[in-house]
Target: Putative 20S proteasome alpha subunit
Amino acid sequence: MNWLVKIATSHGVLLGVEKRVTSTLLETSSVEKIVEIDRHIGCAMSGLQADARSMIEHARVESQHHSFHFNEKLGVESCTQAVCDLALKFGEGADGEESVMSRPFGVALLIAGIDEEGPQLYHAEPSGTFYRYDAKAIGSGSEGAQAELQNEFHKSLTLEEAETLVLKTLKQVMEEKLDSKNVQLASVTKEKGFRIYSDEEMSVVVERLPTN
Model:
């Protein structure tokens, strides 16, 4: 399982993922672990990519539907609820009809966004349950990473400080040496909405990391 780390601060939400490459022939740029749901909501995934695509497409449709009918952005919690409602439909179906899905989803999502309530971060589990966090790490043996976040997180973190904390946490748990090619960052802010960092921005952030 690849690593995901997210932090919600008063300035916005910062998402970080490990881009684990399973083959030397695979282009790292094609490994998509962070995607946009709407201009104010982004998502990072860990698990089965096909399942993630289904859930994210559902979230996008729900967000567009809400915007069209109510002329307002879908709230971050409502977006997460829509994704989890889909996950809960496993095994359901009317009499004589095939169920919506033949098996549970095999993917966990970290959904981050900003709305009238400010920056928000949710962890959507494959079971269809979700929880809100200020900071969250997902991955094999995530207890150590979560403890690191708990020790260093505070609401007044700037986005730049959050960038450093996310990468420090990833560096601590990744098997490979962290560099600008095997990690990816994205942010959601009120001013710029959701955006994924460019290669140049990633190089700058990684160079800021302490060497020890």
User: Anything to note?
Assistant: The chain has one domain: 4-203. Confidence is low (pLDDT under 50) at residues 93-99. The domain at 4-203 is CATH 3.60.20.10 (Glutamine Phosphoribosylpyrophosphate, subunit 1, domain 1). The helical segments are 49-70, 76-87, 143-152, 159-173, 199-207.
